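The pair is set out directly below:
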Amino acid sequence: MNIYKTHNCSELNLKNKLEKVKLSGWLHRKRDHGNLVFIDLRDHYGITQCVIENKNKNFKLVEKLKPETVITISGTVTPRDKETENLELKTGSIEVKIDEVSVLSEAKDLPMPVFGEQNYPEEIRLKYKFLDLRRETIHNNIILRSKVITFLRNKMIANGFLEFQTPILTASSPEGARDFLVPSRVHPGKFYALPQAPQQFKQIIMISGFDKYFQIAPCFRDEDGRADRSPGEHYQLDMEMSFVEQNDIFNVVEPIFYDLFTKFGNGKIVNQIPFPRITYSEAIDEYGTDKPDLRNPIKLKNVTDLFRSENVSLKIFKDTISKGGIVKAIPVPNTHSKPRSFFDSLNNWAIGEGASGMAYIIFERKGDKIIGKGPIAKFFNETALKELIKICNISEKDSVFFICNKKNEAEKFSGIARQKIAEENKLIDEKNFKFCWIVDYPMYHYDEEAKKIDFSHNPFSMPQVKLENFDKSDPLKILAYQYDLVCNGYELSSGAIRNHLPNLMYKVFEKVGYKKSEVDKKFSGMIKALSYGAPPHGGMAPGIDRIVMLLANEKNIREVTLFPMTQNAQDLLMEAPSEVNQNQLKELNIKINLKK
């Protein structure tokens, strides 16, 4: 028999009535009623209420116990009175009448409570993460994370994928985010890099003759943290397949995600497969982002031509349009009962976000006509109002907001405003998971800061232009077989059909300024492998952290991460990063030269 317990703290019920039992766990909560002390005893599995009477020899000991002290109790299972049952607990119909108590490990005064899960400063929560992880919500989130990973692993194996592990110490890549570098002791002055992703290795696995690969891969990027991105490291379901087209990958992935979100989504509805395919250009035009939240019914409209016409006399917009700007309209349904303050507050919000504001028109019916009201309605003649109503497909119960700016800025901010307005109007259906694919990404974009063409996505993707036509094509019009899986406004995964032709790879890199010799040097392993017979292949890498964040209905990725860092990449529990001693630096041939 186990010396610590006969049962877990979630197992006992009326079937165990009058049984002698032993339980071990943490003192979750204590309630002193004078002659009786009630203890909620907690372990990984649940909570059991225990009670001790003042005539028991251990009563004084129990009275002095502090929360989170680890104890073992022995006692008898007793039914609770009907009026004291707690139906929220699995064990809520019984309690254990304590005979014996032993203390396994005393707890000091707590820097933060476990019971009650009160909001506490993040710094305290991260510094005492072992206490934070005892709290019910985050404890369950971490359990969910484990179940999600197990589910995904089983699905991949069932689909014929083999699980391999790729190196953690590898070569630095010139593309993507900053690398984490690891100095080599045996090769002075040289460095390994931690992998930003197993990109090149998984492609080489396909070139090596394996057909389907996956792993739950740790990835390392020296980039700033956000609510939906951990600083430093994350985990992804990395996968790759040989002899496939884009749709083959979609056909494998969609049923997995449909089943995953149906199983762990707490009853939320998952949109049916196949998931919608939206081109990158359509996404930017209609949603202002390549991560659209399809629960939001609002679609943006480009009304630049309308504002350019003689039927609209708004000079400030016309001036911006004459300099290459555009006007995006945001049609908003059922705002006829909103007060003027609603519209003005959104305009003020836009100004606070750095925009010049959001003009608007409110529509209403007057007799047999629909008329416009608001600050800029007077600049529209009747023909313009009719045209706007037609373009935006609206009625007398609706309104339209406008954003006028340079093309990229107007598109980006209209996407942010679309989501803000939908949230303010409670248009987003929180009971749904809505997936879509964003496809046909541009291969290149023009970097305004560097004044040069650069990759817009993954440089190893297959362009949608054949080798013989590549040099004749405008690089900014070349599309790639690149795709993102998006759910509820979050990018869950990027992926692509890979460029498996060395000669085409040289052409692709040449457009951003790489010479053939530089490609050979920077990507020697990849180019070498591609030169000995490479199958067409492709894959993707859904992020585990964001998947669990969505399923747990959390807004911050740290709420689903076992030992997260702060947003500025500090581990407060282990006090990392930390200084190292001079002997360690000497072994690595490194000197520290701190900037003042």
